[in-house]
Amino acid sequence: MKTKINYLIISLLLVAGGFIQNSFAQTLSGIVSDETNTPLPEVNVSLPALHRGAVTDKQGRFTINKLHPGVYTIEFTFLGYKKETHSVTIASKDVSLTVSMQETVLAQPGVVVTGTPQPTDILSSSQSISAVAGRELERLRGQNVIAAIENSPGVSTYTTGAGIAKPVIRGLTSQRVLVVSDGTRQEGQQWGDEHAPEIDAFDVERIEVLRGPSSVLYGSDALGGVVNIIKHDLPSTEEGYSKLGGVLTLNGFSNNESAAGDLSLSGASGVIGYRGHFSLRDAGNTNTPDGKLFNSGLNEASGGGQLGTKGAWGAASIDYSNLSQELQIHEDPAEEVGATPFQKVQHQKVHFHGDFPTRDIRLEIDGSWQRNKRREFEEKEAVEPALHLRLDTYSFNAKAHHRPIGNIFGTVGFSLMSQKNETLAEEKLIPGFDLLNLAGFLYEEAQLKRFNFSAGIRYDARQLKVKETPELNVESQTRDYHAVTGDVGAVFRVMQPLALAINVGKGWRAPSAFELFVDGVHEGTVQFLIGDNKLKNEQSFNMDLSLRYVTSRLQGEVAFFRNKINDYVFASPIGEIDGDSGFQIYLLKQTDATLSGSEFSLDAQIVRWLVLNIGYDYLRGTNDETKNPLPLIPANRVKVGARLTTASLGSILNPYFSFNLKAVASQDRVDDFETPTEGYTLFNAGIGGEIAVGSRRLNLDLRIENLFDNAYRNHLSRYKDYALNPGRNITLKVSAPFTLAR
User: Fold this and answer.
1) How many domains is the chain partitioned into structurally?
2) Which end of the chain has the smaller Cβ count within 10 Å, N or C?
3) How far apart are CA 88 and CA 343, in angstroms?
4) Range of the domain at 269
5) pTM of the prediction?
6) Would you list the DSSP string of 435-495?
7) What are φ and ψ of residue 445, in 5° steps?
8) Are 386 and 429 in contact (CB under 8 A)?
9) pLDDT by residue (tens digit) across 286-312?
């Protein structure tokens, strides 16, 4: 299998190389100024699709040469100003732009790369997307990568202590929400409730969240949405980067006496860009208003490097990352006093990205290898793991973006994913298997004066070869799954800053080997689970309507959605206890389900020094057959906040003080076997700013979470039945950039 895949990837790369020509085309140039027509120097000009850019000179001018035909979104970024995005069509003539930027203190959405094959701005996307980046990401970054997005519209987290968090989008999580890292699926053992995405929280530049199914672009598992983790782009000499610089970041968290640090180095020399980083994290037991949670600490080490080159001919890079974690799991003291189970997880990844524009198409290639090794131990002194899983994933994705045909442009894509899962310890929670998934899709877009239209279709074929596993009563067998998915969207620009968007899409998810064949104790969830080898594909039909408004002083969105899922898989208790483990027995079943709701978010700059924000999430999940609520549905919530800021305060630049509250309703609309939770209100406060050190800025942020040490239970905490959520937590974050060689 591996040999065949390697031959296929090499052949496709050779074919791709045959298309590459040095037939360069047009020039994109322009001038950038402020509202008074004063030229703005050092504005960052970026073409995300090509990973190319420029920086404006003292006269506010920029030039990007040798561009091939296509439709591109260009982004202009300058600290203290609203991000500007423009769609440009490169054809047979040079293109010149005149751009005016407006001052603002609002965090700006900018260009997004998740909802369509081509980067676009949020106002032009037919699907609901939110993003966290820059200083906002620094302020929100927590002890895991998902913590930064947990207050985004429609997003919650399913947690196991401080170190394990899984994204929940509109009530769906685990294998119904796809986590993507730089365009490549993050593949671990994500079926487990206490198995979080193995991604370093420091090695992130931007996080985008697509709310709603996106199977056309990403295939199986994207029923609820997509979380796209985007790393820093490689430096380039044409964008003014030094030969070697870096950032030292230090974080401290008072609640569990956690300390974390990261050293990142990057630079460019000639046509070569390079980047490397190393981080460490260590945390003790979590503190709640009722006391410490025994056996709830963690430690983590992560590192990696990236090397690449880019120019008018395109871009190519290779990236390696390695993350190792040891995670302690706090168990119900009523079940076993003093229990000390823990997990050791290692995730390695090698990722190649290539982008090759030609006269008629732009060929984008991603190839990756991932190895996820998970070992679970029953007690602190254990040497041999009770559960040992090793998953190797090979993936290859190719996208050919064709040049515009009138007002229509689009993408033809092909993807391949091969997996080999091995169960190496005595405990066999899931069988070993080989998986092969092949898919192809077509996605087209049309831009008119005030309308944008998009439509896509995809076909997936998946084969699952299961190995004989006597411990689970599983015989050697082969299973085949097929799906056709589609998506249609439209955006109407009511006026320049106001857009009305509608999207209708069909998604799918193949049942996992865990759901099909599990038969035994799952220590992580304290359940005895029995799978069903007759499970069918989950299929969803989603409708999404949203209204968005983005200016330098006001930006907001209101969205309404309905996601109908046929053959929804869920675990249901049978009312019996397993005699050996003492755990309740659950069966995996299927039903039809509906999730519907609405989201609202608004950020408003009232005066130059005051920003107010407000938002709410409303969600209902229903089992259509029994009319009972679906389990693990987030409680409805309202968020209100204020941020006071100014250009400078003495030697501190962009100082701020923030205060916000989150009011969460009680969740008593629960299934028969689920525990309801009471409502609560949390208060958070923060203060910070930047200190100029030469041409660099030292960033300082102090934040207090759960300011008044309120006792509460989050409905999506796995500890909710026997432990409170964390109490007050004071975090201090310092980020210091530096230059070693120019």
Assistant:
1) 1
2) C
3) 50
4) 2-15+138-741
5) 0.92
6) EEEEEEEEEEEEE-SSEEEEEEEEEEEEEEEEPPBGGGTB--EEEEEEEEEEEEEEEEEEE
7) -130, 150
8) no
9) 999 999 999 999 999 999 999 999 887
